[in-house]
Structures are given as structure tokens and as C-alpha cells.
Structures
1.
Amino acid sequence: MRKYVLPWTLFILEISSFYLLANFLDLPRNVICHFMIVFVLFLFVFEHYKISSKLIWDEIKSVGKAMICFFIVEVVILSAFNGDDWFLSIVILTAAMYFIILFLDRTLRILLRENLARRTLIIGVGYEAARLGNIAQNNRFALTKVIGYLRYKNEPIDEELVERYEKNVNTKPEINIYEDMRLEEIIKKEKIDQVIVALPGVPKKEINKLMLRLYDKVKVIKYIPEVNGLLTFNSKIQDFDGTILISTAQGSIGFVDKVIKRLIDIIASIFGILLLMPIAVYVRCKNHKNGDYDSIFFSQERIGLDGKPIKIYKFRTMIPNAEQVLEELMDKDASIKEEYLKNKKLQNDPRITEAGHFLRKSSLDEFPQFINVLKGEMSLVGPRPYLFREKDDMGVYYNSVIQCKPGITGMWQANGRSDVGFEDRCKLDDYYYRNWNLSLDMIILYKTVKSVFYGKGAL
């Protein structure tokens, strides 16, 4: 009966809110009754009352669609009643209910999460498993509680990643890392409701064996498939007379979307440049205090749209002779050289200035790039602006990344910032190109602001 608590509570609260608001707007009682039926109908059609481990972004979109359909039907019904005087009331009712629904849904999910969340075991300790678990833990809207991770015996994994992974898990005593031979015991002991298989590198034969072990042991089994770059969220699954076919589709930016994206860029860049001024004064004063009188800005040639060179602007966060010092550090310490060649950056870089540490931690070092955005060379959201010397390391991802303007923020900043390795950054930027839409940009902006606010990256 637990699974019915949330939908029924939501239903009662939303109907009550709708009725009270409609009465406050002085709509006729017979009209309220008709509208209430349509209101509930569209919420059911767009699966608002289907309780699943979806994220808030999916709910925002589905409730938005329901309210748009509701509004259109309302206007049609009103025209039949000659109720043109009620149009403003209907606009207010629709907009208000949209936010009320999201508020009630989010609040109830957070309050009831401990009792309603599916107890989840993630099989795998690779990057995909780590990212998936982090999303589940940090999104309170999703009714998924990760109990632990199981290290599968045949999972190809980088030992360095496992060490970092275990270190992060050890900071959360309620989460455990289990060994494969205890799978059935763990499911029974921990009362696991859901298992997520995150083993994209494991052969299909091994996955089939694992699925047989899980068969009839848990209520829900999900898995991350191994896919190539052609598979996007625009792809369609087709039942071809009992055979599953996946038709690939390449996402593309239409003319209207380009215009909207450019308008957003222009507005954001104007506000960004206004905010840039006081930050520049702070950096200048801080550098002068430490005896650094070089320019607070620096420009660097990066890869732009279609592979053309662009000169991007940033706050200088390193000492003036940073490149020379880097060469000396790599000559003296082989581990520093290996780290830089692998990730194109150093985790604890001694060349960063005092002001630079603050700017990087808060991502304010990117603010001068609003000038590039206003000039049309960059976008507010897009792939990372890569260096030309990184072109060979980008490999197959280069051709897709250069199809978009580079962005001040993007997928890799919103999904881990400095914690994300170079190859994973390329994969995330490739994902952005293949799955772009305006709602994805809004999600990235929200997650970037949240990441900057908390001052940390995701695992």
C-alpha cells in the first residue's frame, strides 16, 4: 500500500488547491467542475501520478505539457460559454497550478523519501556506476536510495578509479562496496527493491548470466547498455515482429532554436559583462597586494565552431610565467608529467595564485568569456573550448564537438567540473552535441549554478 500514499496525497492536495483557486478567481461552479475533470485527465495522460524514480527535469516537462493542453482545452470551452472576460483568470489558474503541482510533488517526495524510496543496489564500480549513484543520492526528488555498490568479478576497471571511488564512498558510512559472490545474500539482507546494472564494458554473455542470477530476486532490474555514439535520446525503439530494433537519429538545432539560443546568449552576456566589472576590481586589488602587477586578463587561442581558431578571454589565475614553471615541474617530477599529459591539468597546481584559487573554485575565472559570447564566438552553454594541442587527444569526438559553439559552461562543468577526466569530458561534450535541446541548456545552467554555489564537483 506504500506506493499509493504519494499519488493519492498529491491528487487530494492538487484538486483542493485547484478548487480553492478557481473559486478565488470567481469562476462559475459548473465551469470549475468541467475544468477539474480536464485538469486531472491531462495529469493522468502525462503520467504525473505514476510514481517512479524520475528526476525533477522530467516532471517539469511532463507537467508543463499537461498544463499547456489543459490551457488550450480551457480556452476552447470558454469560447463556447462566451466567457472572454474569464481569459485572464484562466491564465492565472493555469500558471499558478503549474507551480503548485511542482511544489507539492517535490515537497512530498522529499518528506516521504525515506519511506518510499526504492532500496537500490548498483552493480559496478566504474565511472557510469559512480555517476549514476551520485545522481540518485543528490536528487532528492528521485525516489532512489543507493544502499551500496557491488564490484563485479569480470568488470574491466581502472584501479586508480576504484581507489578514488572507494575513498568517496567511505565518506558516506551508510553506503557499502560489496563483493560479487555475496549478491543473493546482499539482496535478501538489505531488502533490495531495485538493482541497476552499470557494466557497459562487460560482454553480453556475462550480463546474461548476471540477469539469470537476479531473475525473480528483486522487483525492478535496470541496466546501462553499451552503446555507440549514434544512439541518442532522439533514437526510437521499434517492435519489428518480436525483434527489437533501434533506429538512430541525429539531433540538430533548427533555425528557430538557433534564434532563441542566440537571444539568450546576448541577454546573458550583457548581464555577465556588468557583473564582470566588480570581480575585475577585486582580482586586481588581490594581485597587487601579493606583488603581482601583470594584467589580470589573458587571452588564448582555442578551437571554435567548425574547428576555426578563436581567441577566448579569461581571468589570469596563474603566475605570469606559468608555462615555463610547468615545464620545469614536469622535468623534475615524472608523476606530475604523467598527470598533466593524462588529464591536461594538475589536481593541486602550485602555479595558481591566491585570487586564482577563489576564481577557479567559484568558476568566476570564466566570466571574461561573456565578451566572446556577445561577439558570437561562444555560447552561454556548449562544449568546452579545447586547445589546439588537445585535438589529437580528442580522437573521434573532435568532429562532433566542433559542430557547436564552445560554451562558458557545459555538460562536463555541470557533471563534475574538475573531477571529470579528459576523455569523459569529451564524451559529455559529444553527448551534448547529439542530444541538444533548449531544456538541456536550462538543466545545465541550473546544475552549474548549484555546483558553483556548493563549491564542489560530482564524483
Note: The chain is about 55% helix and 10% strand.
2.
Amino acid sequence: MAVTTHSQSRTEPWIAPLARGPLHGDVSLPGSKSLTNRELVLAALADGPSTIRLPLHSRDSALMVEALRQLGVGIDEVAPAPGATPNPYGPDLRITPAPMHGDVRVDCGLAGTVMRFLPPLAALAVGPVTIDGDPYARKRPMHAVIQALVDLGVDVTDDGGGAMPFSFTGTGSVRGGSLSIDASASSQFVSGLLLSAPRFDEGLHLTHVGERLPSMPHIEMTVAALRARGVRVDEPAVGEWVVHPGPIAARDVTIEPDLSNAAPFAVAALVAGGTVRIRTWPTATTQVGADLERLLPLWGATVTRDGDDLVFDGGVGVRGGASLPGLELDLSRGGELAPALVALAALADGPSEITGIGHLRGHETDRLAALASDVNRSGGAVHELDDGLRIDPAALHGGDWAAYDDHRMATAGAVVGLVVDGGDSAADAPFGQFDESGVRVRPH
């Protein structure tokens, strides 16, 4: 199967490998995107320099770094401290706060954390700021951010559609106070406001008024990061937060591995069979990827801790003849795990319903429509629900898998490709090695 990535630099499909035997994987993950971009914002607003160790180096984090630099924040690459673990993915970062200025145009790319976290921070700068991103980013939900800025006294100019691009002129301060928003489309609306709230004149008393609030662990992550820097955050009720005005402490912080990005590797053990070891899995975390330790045993995986690592054992796997059950899952806590788990459910012998993920329609792409389209193009039977997907058993075949410029869609295609043979792979491939699969991952 070929996965098409739809990137500016890659137009040819990537041929997903076919597993010819069980895996024996050992994976060291890069840093958490969610934690990296939260800590970058807090460090930019802190009362002194901070060092972020083992940060993620990716397009999303690079866009955040560039946006902060445009606003006047000093960000330098530094060598690891003596005796510290070096980051194989890139240097540590030293962030030095400075008075922020406007006259900038922020490029958010497709990064939800940039487009939702930067505007409240940039409103504290002095001067005009424009927020924009990739063409598809202009379709992503932004009304709650724009309306929140207006309600906080920021003069925002947009086309009336509640989306990018939009502009405002910062005055160096934001009033703050009481604010109600509907964050049903993304928990990032809440996190973006909470992160900058200590620097608002009156802090922030934020209340969510929508019917649902997805991805609560991400908000818990934000609150924990604020409290770790000495900010007082009260939670008087579910969906209500009070951030008191005051300084944000400078702090050196080490970023945890990105546990959500462990999903395709851990799922691969159930598909191809064998074991996958994820290095330095934290014993306590606010990351939703930690739910993999609970979810994958529902499909038959054995999960054990070995020192600092977590080991996922898939037994013989689908490739070895294992039968995966159909499941009913509510992923409202962590919808980012859905693409890998939908790929797994598409290989199960019973029907599955994965719900609590309606908000994924507003992610890097409409992930519900994209998953249904990709699996069905491969011979599957996926139906969209109001709040999720129903996946019925079907015999999958090789073909094109569109990635839509979305890494989670690409890795979902790679998972399916482990056991979907296009019929042209060598029959005598060595056991335990990979051959060309029938899955071709294409950009779009």
C-alpha cells in the first residue's frame, strides 16, 4: 500500500513495508509536541530565562519558535548540560523573555497549538499582528479564539467567518476577567487562554459553556504546567478555571517523550506480532498517550513495565493468525489515538464503534472522513457516525492511502500496510524482515 504525504517536498508515494514475521522493536520517541509548545509559551512569558531540555523538533514546534522570535522573544539552541541526556533529535532551547512587539505576520502552518496558543500571547505585544497559516488551516475552527479576544477587549479584524487570517493591534496588555467560551471543537481553545492568563491584568475566570469538552487531559496538562511555574489556578467546577494574575516563574524543564506518537509502534505489535519496547515511558503523566497501556490489552496485547521502559507484546499478531475482537471505545479523552486504533479495528474480526471523536473533523484534516475514505478505498467498511466511526469486518486489499498532510493519517496507513499484501511481494522473503507492501501512502 502506498501512503501519499501531500507535502511540498514529497510528491511520490511511500511504499509501506509488509511484515514477514514478528517485530522486535526498540523505540526512543522524540519529545511531546503538546508539552514542548506549552512550555515555549510559558517560558516566553516567564520572569526570567528558561531552558527546555529534550524538546520536540518538528514543523509545529519550529513554527512556535519562529513566531515567538518574531514577537521579540530570545530563543537560542544550547548544548545539553554536563551529565544530561543528549537529545538525538536536536538541541535544547534557551528562552529569554523580552518586551514583545507587533508588526509581524505569524505563520501557524497546520499547527493547532500555534494557531490557538499564540493569539492570546501576541495580544500582549505592542503593535499589529496577523495570524495566518496553510490553506487548509483556514478551514480549522478558530471562532472561539477570535471571539474570546474580542470579549477581552482586543480589536480583532477578520472576514466575519471566525477563521484565519485575522489581525489585531496589541496594546501591551489584555484586560482579562470573566469569560465564557464554547470549546466543544477543541480543548486547545481553553489551553491557549489559560497559558497567557497570568499576564492578563485581571487574570482570567474562564467558563466552558458547550455541550462537551473533548481531550480533558490536555487541559489538565496545561494546568499542571502553569502550577509548576508557580501560577495559582483554581478549578471551582468541571469546565471552569480561575487563573490568578501574577508572575510566571522561570524554570528549566525536561520534555517527556511523545506518548501519542507511540501509538502506531505499539499497535504494530498486535498487527505483525512480536514485541515493541518504548523507551523512558513516564510512570505518571498528563499525556493521553498513556491510555495505550489500558487500551491495547482490550485487543489482546500484554503490556509490562521493564525499568524505565514499557513493552507491548502482541503475541503472534494478525500476521500470525490472531483474531482481534471488535470493541466499543469512547476516545473523548484522547482522540489523537483514533487513527492508529481505527487502523487496528479495520483488521479485527468483529465490528467496532469508536466514539467521542467528532471534534476530529476540525483537525489537520477531517480525520473521520479521511479514515473512512482510506479504509474503504482499501476494501473496508467504515461508516461515519455523528460522533465517531463504525468499523465493520472486511477483507482489505492493497492500494493508495492518502495522508492529507497529516502524520497520524500516514502512520495509520503504515499500520494497515504491515499485513495488507498487494500480491507482488516476494514469497520467499526472510522471516522477520519486511518487503514491499500493497499499501502506497500518498500525499493526498
Note: The longest strand covers residues 434-442.
3.
Amino acid sequence: MESHLKKLVTHYRKSLQIKPDNLAIYDKIAELYYEQRELDKTLEVCQEALQIQPDLASVPKVLNKMLQTLGFEGEEVTAFQNLLQSKLDYESFQMLLSRSETVKTPADVKTWKDAIVLGYDFKEKKQWDEAIAAYMKAIEIEPSLSLSYLTLNCIINYCFTPEFNQLERIITFYHQLIQGCLTPPYAYVVLGDMLTKQGKISEAIIAYKFAINQTIHLNKKITKKYINSPKNDDVSFLIIGMGKAGTSSLYYYLCQHPQFLPATDKELHFFNKNFDLGLDWYLAHFPPLPAEGGFLTGEATPWYLGSYEVEKKVFQLFPQIKLIAILRNPVDRAISQYYMSLKFMKEHRSLEVAMTSEVEILKDIADPTQVIEKYWQTEKGYLWFGLYVYFLEKWMTVFPREQFLILRSEDLYNQTDKTMKQIYNFLEITDYSLSEYPKVNSGSYSKTNNELRKKLSDFFKPHNQKLEDFLGMKFNWE
């Protein structure tokens, strides 16, 4: 088998001598190494591909599998894909491939690589205080490594409660560290998030704006004309839904467009959780846009669609904003959300028990958007969030139909180029094709038994028909 692998790699390497910029060949070589679990060589090939064409679309698709093999999950995968052009981020992969057994505590740490390995191990064991200490050590040793800030922020968000007593210590550490140090923009996003948790909103706004300013000056899309032009604070569009329907992939594709300037984070949860923080806090997460046009910005919080009275809050601040909703077969969406909850230990029931319980509660409710409080004490909303028509009806009593683009997630994955052109046309920007369209933040799980799937399909059937009638478009979900 090893001999066969070497022959294939040699064959593809010879092809590269003829066509050295053929990214498809790099992808095939990376796949061969990955199948043999030679992850270090897989990584080397991915690095070679980026040197040929240094944009995220050129990274071999096997890299996403490799991220998951190394233990990255959910939003960590999405965020890490946005950091791949950094040499240090690649080196962190190398470190994860061979863990040191001698490093047991932060006191044993000598290098930033050892600190991240230790932090990762503590995170897996849910020893949060120890994980935080390890990632802070990694930041202290190598302040320019984005991965440490990203993971530290994920841990803080997971652990944060009013009783969380580490925040002041971490913020003090941050302030001491960033004085005169070369730190990535995301370091200031994390600082802004922590200051927000402390209620220090004006200080948080300064941190977010500093992050945006750093990002702008590092962004290859930016020209001197942009830097010197008059600008407005504005948000061009929102992806309002739906969760587990492809919003991470869609936002990732948009981030590659030369006219798109991303927010500090994909999901800001302003209109459903953070509205009281004020408009200035929200706008601080976005790059300012030239008054003469040419660029756009937006965010994707996929739970906006089903959240209470979000549509009124959006209209209050941005009455002309463009709105995108991507809808997935509600059976598939519900099952995907269930497995995400199971993965993060927010669900302990079996799939059949969870789905059957919710069917029984929702089947006799005349207006599913007005579920009783008891519902939220027992259910997770797996089916409820798939009742799209009732949410869209509410939004379209506030916004005119022409401000919406409604998409099927099945089309995004099966006809990606065509669907993206539809989106670009709606956003009034030029067409832009990627060489690859990787699925971002996707999960995998066993096939659902036919009896349960039919039960869920029967439940959704009348609601799906209402959706088609209301929008005048076919979804063809079974």
C-alpha cells in the first residue's frame, strides 16, 4: 500500500512540473496523504497550495477533514479557516500532530506550542480554569498567534456566568500584554467581548473599532482610495436564518468576495440578545463603508428569523436593509440541530424521544409562534424553528417582500455557483466564483430510521405547503 501511495504521489508530482499552479493536483496529493493518516505531509501540501494562490478558496478541501481529525469543533473550524493564511496557525497544526507527554501544568511550559497542547487537553477534560491558564501562557509567549485568543474566547463564553471570577484577571493580563506587542486583530475582539461582559461598553467599543481598523489595514482588498474616502457607518444586509441550514458556509463564501468587508464575527446576536447595548456597540463590529459605494458589510445570526420581535428592532434601525433567509428541509434541519445539542451536552434524550415529544406538543397549537412558556422548559425547538412560514409572515408584515431573498440550502450545496450569483445580484455586487466551495461547520451522524423520518415529514407537510403558497415558490421537500 505504501509503495502504491508513493507511486501515485510521484505521478502527481510529475504533473505539477508541467502545471505547477494546478491546485486540483495538490488536492489529490493531500487526499492521498490524509487517507494514510500522514497528517504532517497533508499539511505540507496544503501549505504549498497556499503559496501558489494565497486565498482561502485555494486551500485543499481535505484541510477541513484534517481540522476535525485534530479535534476542532463547530465554530472553531469556521474561525480557524479564516486564519489559515498565518504561518503560525499552520505551525499550530504541526504541534498538534505530536503532543508532548512531559508538559503537565502551565509551570512546565517552555514554548507556545506546548501551552496550546496543554490547553487543548484541559479543554477536552473540561478543566476550564487550567485551560484558561494554559492559553494565557501561550498568548504571553507568542502574542501574535490568533488561535490562542480564539480558543480562550470560546472557553470564556462557555464558562461565563455572573459568578465567573476570572474575567478581571484576564482583562488586566490583556491590557498589560497588548502595550507595544504585535497582536492580531482578533485579540481586540476578545478584549471587547470581555469588556462587554463587564458592562464597560464604551471601552468595548474602542476595542472593537481598533480590531476593525487593524483588519482594514491588513486586508488586501483595501486600496488607498478606500482609506482616504469619506465613510458611513452602516450595515448592508443580514442573514436572518435559519440555524443549521448553511449560514456558516454562505457567510464564508461571501467573505471571499473582493467587495465584502466582514464583521468582527459572523454572529453578533445584537437584535435577539444584545439590543440593550446600543447601536454604537453594534456598529463598532463593522468596517465603515465608503459613501460612494463599492463595498458592503453584514452579519449572519441565523436565529434572528425565529426570535421574538426581532423584525421590529431591525426595521427601527435599518428600514432599507436587505434580508437573506436560507431554508433547509425542516426534517433534516431538526435532526442536525438535535445532534449539535447532543454533541455539546445540551441534550440527553434519544432522537426519537426528543422529536416525538415536540410533535405531541406542537401538533395542536393553532399559531406555532405563540408557544406557551412550558414548551421552552421542556423542548429545544428542533421542530419549532422549522415552521418557517409563520416567522416569514411576521417579518413580511414589517418589511416589503422585495427586501428579502429566500433560498433553499439544498440549492446552495448542489448549485453553489448559480445560487451565489443569485445572492450577488440581490446584493448588487459583481459575480465572483470560487475554485472550491467547502462545507463549513457541517456535522455527520447516523441515518434516521424511516418510521421516525416519515412521522416528522407528515408533521411538517401542511406547514411546508403553507410556506410554498405564501412565497409562491416550490421547495420540494419530502
Note: The first helix runs from residue 2 to 18.
4.
Amino acid sequence: MLKRPVYIYTELSPNPNSMKFVLNFMLAPDGLSFDYPNLEAALEEGKASPLAGDLFQFPYVQRVFIASNFITITKDEETLWEEVLKDTKQFLKIYFEENQPVFEQRTIDKNTIIVDANDSETVQKIKTVLDQYVRPAVESDGGAISFHSFDEESGAVKVLLQGSCSGCPSSTLTLKAGIENLLTRMVPNVKEVVAEGV
């Protein structure tokens, strides 16, 4: 059996405990992302990932995030990347050379920013700005952002930050200085942006 060529390079993320492992092929459909905060989530019916499940066998792995052509792994505080990076990269290389599955066949995620016909005009604008301007920047740091909700009265947009953005010390700054500035400028009804579950 021919092994497929697998090239992996790593990128630091703004979260010092997260490392982005970038591959030379797609892992998830564009715009979809899969966040596994623990082993139970990786085994959950309907969103299971054998890859994430196997990664949680490493004692230092705290979270696994998969999107487009990268995996962001968040480690515990005690472990240094210098100690585990080579082994983690080697594991991923062998896993993909053997054509092991990333997801179970039925795994489908709703974690994409899709404009719905039932959305108000303001919500449609918010989703468009998030998708065109924010999502690519957040993905380049090994994370993802999804629209959660918009409160018409207060003007508050709730977003869900995942991957390296989850628990990242600089995610609050990114949220307020970057995303909130952009949305309040481009969508006048937006007054603030808050992160759900960070």
C-alpha cells in the first residue's frame, strides 16, 4: 500500500499552550471547524473524531481543534512544547500516512457562519463581516470564531471562540480591540462584542 506524502509544519499561536500543526491537505470542509475540549467530546455520537480521540491519549493534551488544513493542540501548563513537539508531529505524520480517519463518517458540524434567510438585516451584516474579515485572521492563529447571538436592544453580539483562542490570554484583547472595533464600525447597530464560553 502506498503511503501518501504528509508534510506538517508547526506555527506558534498567540496562546503559548497551543500549537498549530498545518498539513499539506484539507482535513475539514472549508468554513467548518470541530472543537474537542476533552476525550468525551471526541467520542460523542454525531461529532466523533478518531484523530482527536487518539491525541487525547497523550497525557499533556488538553484540547484538540480541527479546521480546514490544520490541527491546533492545546497542552497543559506543566509540559513544555520542546519536550513533546517532535513526538506529537511524528504521531500525526504516521497517522496520516496510514490514511487513518479524521472524523467518523457521520460527523457533521453546524459550526460555520452561514447567513440564514430568517436572520434580521443586522444579523446578516454581522455574519458577513465575521466570515469575510474576522474568520480568516482567527484561523491563521489556529482558532475559529462562530456567531452565537445578537441582542437588538443592547446591541451586544455574542461569539464563540474556539481552538487556540479558547482560554488564550490575548483573546480578550483580540475580541475588544479587533473584532469589536471592526463590527461597531461596519455595523452601526452593534455596541459591543462578548465571547461565549471563554
Note: Residues 121-140 form the longest helix (20 residues).
